Known about the structure:
alpha+beta
Amino acid sequence: xxxxxxxxxxxxxxxxxxxxxxxxxxxxRSSMELSFNGKSVxxxxxxxxxxxxxxxxxxxxxxxxxxxxxxxxxxxxxVILSHGIGELCES
Length: 91
């Protein structure tokens, strides 16, 4: 399962939003990946997420694979939307 988001936070995904995403992903049983600019990293590793240097107006894809994949994606989407990190892209 996958969802795409446009990053709207002026600073992009820097330390604070990365920490929010990673802590949310870490509580899920599914494996989760964040993809940007042709690279995919584990969404459960803050260092991996930070290495992507995701700027404002970028499009990212978050994917989940596992028995709680749908719930995991919903949880991450809620974090992204409620903290002003980004907005959901239309499929």
